[in-house]
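Question (not urgent): is this output format expected?
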Amino acid sequence: MAKIHKATDEFVLNVENLLEAITGKPYGIVEKEHLEGRIWGVYLDEDKVKLAESLLMNHGAQWVEEEKDGFIQVCSDKFLDITDMASDLYDFWFEDTDVLLDRKNWEKYRKEVPRLIAELEAAERIANELNKKYDTNITIWSGEKPYLKTGFDAKGMSEDEKLHEIERHAKTMLKMWERRHKWVVTVGAKMYRKTERSRMRMIKFREDVISRLQDITKSEYTSGYKKELLSEVLWSIVGCHYTKKDFNTNRGVWYVKKTKEDIAIFSDNFETINARNELEYNSIKLMGGVTAGDYEARLNFFSYYDDIDEHGWNIARPITKQEAMRNGKKAIINSKSLEDVAKQVSREFKVDIRVMKDKPVLMTEFNTKGNRQQVKLHEIERRAKALAEAWKRMKEMVKVAEDSKA
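Got this back:
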C-alpha cells in the first residue's frame, strides 16, 4: 500500500507566507473538505484585491499543492482561451481542443489559427529556456484553457528543503509569466493587429452580405465556423432561427461560403419546406434532410429544440430517435419540378442555378478574382433573389400537390 504523505498546519502556513513574501500578493489555504485528494493547497486569493489590480497581477504562481504521493507542483493561471481566440480571430471551431496537448498537432493547425499556435510555441520556448537555466520542468497543459506547471518529488525532504524548492520553482514560474506576457504585448500584439486589420474588412463585407440577404429573404443569418483543417473556406454565413418567430420565412439562401477565388450560395434542403416549428425542422434534418453547410459550418447540429420543462424553465431538449421519426416528415420534392424551377429562375435572373447531385438543394457560384467588393455584393444579391424566387415557387408547387391529395 502506497504511503500517504502528511503536512503540518504550520508548514502550510509557512508556504502561504513564503508565496506572499515572494509576490507581495495575498494567498489563501484550501480548506480540507475541498482538497479533493491533495494533502494541502495554497492559492492566489484574488478576492482580496481589486479587479483592476487582479488583471495586472503576475499569475505565474497561481496555485501550489502537494499530491498524496509527495509530489509538489506550482501551477499558473490559464493564459489563453483556445476556443475564444480561434473563433473570434479565425472563425475556427475546435471539436476537441485536447488535440493541442500533442505538440505534433501544432503544425497542422498553424494555417488555420497562426496567432494561437505562435503563442503556444512562444510559451514552450520560454519554458525550455527557463528550465535549462533554473533546472525546473515547466510544461504547458493545453486543453481548452492552457496553463503552465512545474514541480518536484518532495519524498524524503525536510520542510525547509521543501520550502526552498517551492521558492525556486515559484520564482521561475513568475519569470515565465512575465516573459510570456511581454511576448503577448509585443510580438503577439503585432500579429493580432495584422490579423485584425484584414479581419475587420472581412467582417464588414460579411455584415453587408447578411444585411442584403435579410432584405431579400426576411430570414435570419449568422456567421459560420470552420471545423475542418485546410477547408479553404475563408468565411461563411449560415441561416438560423434564433428568433424562432416564423418557420415560413424564405430559405432560398441558407449557406454562403467564400473561398480564395469563389463565392458559393446554397438553399436550404427543400425537404424542410413544410416544417412548422423547430422540432419538426430539426427532426427532418436528423432524418437526412441536410444541406450544404449543416456539417461544415454550424457549431451544433440539429439534435435539440427549445422547450419548457416541468418547472416552466426554457431548456434545450434533445430530440430522441423516436421523436425524429415521428416529426421528421419530409416534403416530397419532385426532382424534375426542382430542375425546371432552377432553369426558369436561371433564365429570368440571368444566373446559373443548379440542383446539387446528392440532395434537393439549389446552388450557384461565381468567380470573385479581381472583383471589387461592390461587384461581389451585386452578384450575391442577383443570385440570392433567384434562389429566393425558386424557394417561393417550389413552396407553392408543394402546397398545390399536397392539397390535391387531401
